[in-house]
Amino acid sequence: MPSEPLSQKEIEDRLRELPGWAFEDDRIFRTYRLGGHFAASALVAHIASVQEELNHHSDLTLGYNTVRLSVNSHDAGGVVTENDFALAERVEALAPAHGAS
Ligand SMILES: C[C@H](O)[C@H](O)[C@H]1CNC2=NC(N)=NC(=O)C2=N1
């Protein structure tokens, strides 16, 4: 479901509710730190399942014990929309169970 680009103020307002998330180069992003590599890879798999459910996909980067998620909306021309924040909120909700910080 394409959605409208969010304004700078709307993005800033939403980011205040999402500690750890930031906005740069028309993307929102966050890096999660995990207890080790396998835990980080399990978080990637869980995020991927949610992304398939939402049909909204970020760029996920798996490090030794980190997962970086960076996303914007291709269907809105590569800018941040409500769909990006919907994904961010779902990931914020599932991350603690993985021991992510
Ligand atoms: C055809 C498919 O529904 C679209 O390409 C979906 C897939 N995942 C997506 N992910 C993101 N980040 N933006 C999109 O516009 C998007 N569109």
TrEMBL record:
EC number from the UniProt entry: 4.2.1.96
One matching Pfam family: Pterin_4a
Catalytic activity: (4aS,6R)-4a-hydroxy-L-erythro-5,6,7,8-tetrahydrobiopterin = (6R)-L-erythro-6,7-dihydrobiopterin + H2O
Keywords, sorted A to Z: Lyase
Protein name (record): Putative pterin-4-alpha-carbinolamine dehydratase
NCBIfam families associated with the record: PRK00823.1-2
Family per similarity comment: Belongs to the pterin-4-alpha-carbinolamine dehydratase family.
